Amino acid sequence: MGDWYYATADGQRYGPLPAMELRALAAVGTVGAQTLVWREGMARWQPLHECAADLDLPVLPPPLPAAATATQPPPSGLSGCAIAALVVAVGMVVMAMLGILAAIALPAYNDYILRAHASAAIAEAQALQVQVAESLAANGHCPRNGEEDFGEPASYARGHLASVTFGEFEESDLCGLEARIAAPGKAALDGKAIWLEYRPGDGRWQCSSDADDRYLPVSCRG
To answer: Is residue 199 part of a domain?
Structure first.
């Protein structure tokens, strides 16, 4: 399956993105069911929900039928006190089970949300790679903030990014960008760096980050 593109309501196009990162954008709400998407082989742009099967996205079930309004009388063999005691006992069991499930599920769910947020930030940073590579090829030097078509770092504060700095990396002398993640209230990600380094010899990009590997896609770890 080829890489995907998506278009925002203001007419901006982003991509190419692997299917995994488009799913991550859908998970955090950056793209919605009506967001237009496209990949090679499609005759036209289509809403995301029409491509759910191709992207392995969950399909929402139809609305539940209206609940019946009629109530059944309590069994004639049970008194009101017995019914009340039974309801309390069942409620206590249910609450205990919910507590156990919450203790297991909440940490896993929080990790999932952080992974989705990090993947969305990386995808938004990678959308700038084409602009960097084209500028390097046209001008013969690595672009920097403030040059034509490249704003100041804070001007890229949108979506899941707080800033983007363009230039050469001191340790490798490779051209690329450093993006800072915007994740208010999520200390594990907020302000963490994403580094995208471009290797013009083979046209490949290398991704790394100072965020914990467990929140990063495999392609950006280490």
So the answer is: yes
